[in-house]
Design brief:
heterodimer, A: mainly beta, 6-stranded mixed beta sheet, about 15% helix, globular, B: 5-stranded antiparallel beta sheet, 5-stranded antiparallel beta sheet, 20 strands
């Protein structure tokens, strides 16, 4: 399997690469009044509208300095998921979702057994486990759980 | 050069200035970037082969095209970066080296201004006026007396034709004596001004007189001879007096090769240089320009400066300051001329060899030259006379010979077969002194200007801090941001490609290496560019540090030179007749005369707050500005350091100094620096001390002015905000500061070791943290000037980084 890694406040995180549709530089965000504070707003990606999730807010860390622009990860939507993703029992959403992160770092190849369960002291509900690549650790995020905690799970999530 | 070439100042790898390191650097980046195109083509072909749908192929092609665009942008970016790199260095070096050239000519100007004051105040000394008036008078009398002496001698000879009872001498016997004496009749000048001639004449007159005394009725002749001897004796005394006075002055002011006093006919009657005296006295300088120009100087504030190639006074090239000596009692009638032969060669040597990098042996580094040219373009002083010959026309590009006052220029030229940069600055005088229209030139090997920063390591600052600092021009900061941005863009494209390929499953495997290669190329190119930017930033930092060192050196040099003048002045003033008279015989009249003399001196030397004389008991008897002293009538200085030190001075050559501090002689205990010298009866060189002359140097004003001059300026000549300049004494206590808010007076800032432990004449620079602020600082320690040792002070210039 492949994982895509990114940073939030000097901490390294990872998601499955098959769930990534595209990386891009920050786009102008249109704020949505009354939205969950973890939602930055909406962006327009080549005609498609996507919801921007602020990952710093999700992990309850202070906002970035105004000079740091961050980067964006557009997640795959349900109908675009490739066969391999479905076989790996990965989940996606019908609507485009963008993760707003500090910086995107790399793509790593690894074996399933390299994923370790998250340590008991991690209380974050959307952490799926810990990955060790060489001497570096990444926190693997479950997109399903993350978005579920933000949106209406019944309406949006599909197996 | 730089200004003219700006339009075509685009980077070309063929430019000879580009260093080999950078050529290699550039080639590597370009090779990498050129490699992108085939990779992208390969990617496009692979896409066509593996894609199942048109959209898939389009997506891959799109990615490839974006990579190609970025690669092209990076290519341009690299060129721009080199452009900026070389332009920035060129610009900065131009600014720093033109400033250095200017500092050198400015040092000369400041010295020359002091010299004009010297010659004018010396010419006003009573002893010279009196000597000249007396010599002129005696000289005229002697014309007649020597003629008459001949007549008398002829008569005497005749008288011996008739043998008398008293003597058995005949004319034959006396004839030889008379002829001996008569032979001097036409040698008036030699008799007056050459000791040896006068002595042998006197001997002959004595022998003759002895014989004449034995004759009959020789009284008139004897009286005549007596008169001539008496007059000549007086002239010799006057000459000795004047010479001794000139020697006193000359020994305090070692920057003169000789000081000369002539009559209005151009006959040298006194000089300071005792070694040359026998060759010089009695000679005529009537046809030398410095003399003729000085004779015509009208009022007392006029002087002439003449550069001589040869003078009978001095075979070396000299700069002669001259002015007429006038009799105050006779409607300013010109009675003679004073000429001061300034030691230009030595002064130029001191200045020109300074501010230049040195090898371990203390020689000037290879390829560096510094020299002055006069308004005709002839070299008047050179740091290396074997290469740039004094007296020759300097072989410089036209622009360097056509400067306007205060202007500067730089260009590239080949000097002694070495690609060099030439920086020139023209004098604009100093204060009300217009200068001589001279220019200062500095030659620096080009490869040193553009040398790679091999060691991007300066303690106390991180590359990121440096990159954000105010030192780095906005344009470079923008480039830095742009490179970072491009690097990230390429990375995102590659990542997108890899993600895309991974979703194609087995079909995508062929694309993987393509994107990995693109990531590598992007990383390599941008990392290299970051490296270059950092090199640029460190280069900028290094040049800034060098600038601060130069300015701190200028600050300490200016104060050393200023204090040299003070230490010289105090010594010759202390021998002034008015002053010792008032101390030896303190009648109201004498004390008043001394006060007047002090006021006169203070009038021409405005850098003093006050000049005071105290008697042996330490009571102040008079001052140039008595109103500045809090309680003049009761002023006692017996326990002041300057007074006690002066009372211990052994001879005329010694003086005392009281370091900067609050003084009781000033209202509000204003800080002053006091130079003092012992006053001796009859202005003698040693012996009993009758009192002390103290000069209160206006430290606050003068040092403040110098510190302001040495604050760094930006490229438009505006002072850079937040900079501070200060002087510290040998205990590192701040004695003057340009900004007491940041560096308070009397404080002892925690200076880094390399700035504290400087040897005399050494400079250092580095990063300095003070109260959460980061500064860069240049420091220099005093090395004195000529025989003036300096007071162990140091000058420090700070520039904030943020």
């Amino acid at each position: 399997m492949q994982i895509s890694t990114f940073n939030i406040r000097n901490e390294a995180f990872a998601i499955h690469s098959l769930l990534v549709e595209e990386y891009f530089r920050p786009l102008p965000i249109t704020k949505v009044p009354g939205a969950d504070p973890r939602i930055d707003g909406l962006v327009n990606i080549r005609g498609r509208t996507a919801v921007v999730v602020n990952m710093r807010r999700c992990f309850e860390v202070p906002a970035r300095e105004s000079t740091a622009h961050g980067e964006m990860i557009l997640l795959e939507t349900t109908h675009r998921l490739v066969k391999e993703a479905l076989e790996s029992r990965l989940y996606a959403f019908d609507e485009p979702i963008v993760l707003n992160v500090d910086s995107v770092s790399q793509i790593h190849h690894l074996l399933d057994e390299e994923i370790h369960p998250s340590p008991p002291h991690v209380s974050q509900p959307f952490v799926d486990g810990v990955i060790r690549v060489q001497d570096k650790y990444f926190t693997l995020i479950s997109i399903q759980k993350l978005i579920a905690s933000l949106l209406q799970p019944e309406a949006q999530v599909r197996t | 050069m730089i200004i003219e070439q700006k339009s075509e100042n685009k980077f070309s790898i063929f430019n000879s200035l580009i260093t080999n390191d950078h050529r290699e650097f550039y080639e590597k980046i370009i090779n990498e970037l050129i490699g992108v195109s085939p990779i992208c083509n390969q990617g496009k072909c692979t896409a066509a082969a593996i894609s199942e749908t048109a959209t898939e192929q389009e997506q891959i092609t799109d990615l490839m095209e974006r990579v190609e665009t970025f690669a092209a942008e990076l290519h341009d970016g690299t060129k721009n970066l080199f452009d900026q790199f070389y332009a920035a260095k060129e610009e900065f070096c131009r600014s720093i080296y033109c400033t250095t050239a200017y500092i050198k000519i400015n040092l000369i100007d400041r010295t020359l201004l002091e010299r004009t004051c010297d010659v004018m105040s010396w010419a006003a000394e009573t002893v010279f006026v009196e000597t000249l008036e007396r010599i002129n008078k005696i000289s005229r009398a002697l014309d007649k007396q020597l003629f008459e002496m001949g007549e008398y001698l002829d008569a005497s000879k005749a008288a011996f034709e008739v043998p008398t009872l008293e003597t058995n001498w005949t004319m034959k016997d006396i004839s030889q004596y008379v002829d001996d004496v008569r032979s001097y009749q036409s040698r008036k000048l030699e008799l007056m001004l050459q000791s040896e001639v006068y002595q042998s004449f006197k001997q002959k007159v004595d022998s003759l007189a002895e014989q004449l005394g034995k004759g009959k009725s020789q009284e008139a002749t004897l009286a005549m001879l007596q008169k001539v001897i008496k007059n000549l004796e007086e002239v010799h005394q006057l000459v000795a007096q004047s010479c001794s006075r000139l020697e006193d002055i000359g020994s305090s002011y070692t920057l003169y090769r000789d000081l000369i006093i002539t009559t209005t006919d151009g006959i040298v009657v006194a000089n300071a240089n005792s070694k040359r005296r026998a060759d010089v006295l009695g000679r005529s300088v009537a046809d030398e320009t410095w003399f003729t120009r000085a004779k015509d100087t009208g009022d007392t504030n006029e002087y002439a400066i003449e550069k001589t190639n040869r003078s009978i006074i001095d075979s070396e090239n000299s700069l002669v300051f001259s002015t007429s000596i006038k009799s105050a009692s006779k409607n300013d009638q010109v009675v003679g001329v004073m000429g001061a032969f300034f030691d230009l060669a030595e002064e130029a040597r001191i200045i020109l060899q300074d501010y230049m990098p040195k090898t371990e042996d203390g020689d000037t580094a290879e390829g560096w030259y510094s020299f002055f040219t006069d308004c005709e373009g002839k070299v008047v002083g050179s740091s290396d006379p074997n290469i740039i010959e004094v007296g020759d026309y300097a072989h410089l590009p036209r622009g360097h010979r056509k400067l306007t006052p205060g202007g500067n220029i730089s260009s590239y030229a080949s000097i002694e077969g070495k690609d060099s940069s030439v920086f020139s600055a023209m004098s604009d005088g100093y204060l009300d002194y217009a200068g001589l229209g001279w220019s200062s030139h500095l030659i620096v090997p080009s490869n040193e200007i553009f040398a790679s920063e091999s060691n991007c390591q300066i303690n106390g600052i991180s590359p990121d801090e440096l990159m954000r600092s105010r030192l780095i021009p906005e344009i470079n900061k923008d480039t830095y941001v742009k490179v970072q941005d491009d690097k990230q863009s390429i990375k995102l494209i590659s990542l997108n490609g890899i993600v895309f390929a991974s979703k194609l499953g087995k079909r995508g495997v062929a694309l993987g290496p393509v994107f990995e290669r693109i990531t590598e190329t992007g990383d390599f190119a941008t990392a290299k560019m970051e490296e270059l930017l950092r090199e640029m930033a460190y280069g900028e930092l290094r040049l800034n540090l060098q600038t601060l060192e130069t300015f701190s050196k200028q600050a300490i040099d200016l104060i050393d030179r200023n204090l040299f003048e003070r230490s010289a002045a105090i010594r010759w003033w202390a021998t002034d007749k008015c002053l010792w008279q008032a101390l030896v015989d303190p009648t109201d009249e004498n004390v008043q005369a001394a006060g007047r003399r002090l006021r006169d001196i203070n009038g021409s030397y405005s850098m003093y707050r006050n000049l005071v004389i105290a008697n042996r008991m330490g009571r102040v008897i008079t001052a140039s500005n008595p109103e500045l002293i809090p309680d003049m009538k009761e002023a006692r200085v017996a326990d002041h350091a300057w007074f006690t030190k002066s009372m211990r001075c052994k001879n005329f050559g010694e003086y005392a100094v009281q370091d900067v501090g609050e003084s009781e002689l000033e209202r509000g205990s204003r800080r002053s620096l006091i130079y003092s010298g012992a006053v001796r009866a009859n202005g003698a060189r040693d012996g009993e001390i009758v009192g002390v002359l103290g000069s209160l140097f206006d430290w606050v004003t003068e040092s403040g002015k110098i510190l302001k001059t040495c604050l760094p300026k930006d490229r438009n000549g505006k002072r850079i905000q937040g900079c501070v300049a200060f002087y510290a004494n040998r205990n590192f206590e701040v004695i003057e500061t340009s900004d007491p808010q940041i560096i308070p007076l009397g404080a002892t800032p925690e200076l880094p070791a390399e700035h504290r432990e400087l040897a005399a004449g050494q400079s250092a620079s580095g990063v300095f943290r003070l109260c959460d602020h980061i500064y860069i600082m240049g420091s220099s320690r005093s090395k004195g000037y000529r025989e003036y040792q300096g007071l162990g002070w140091s000058a420090h210039i700070l520039r904030p980084l943020f």
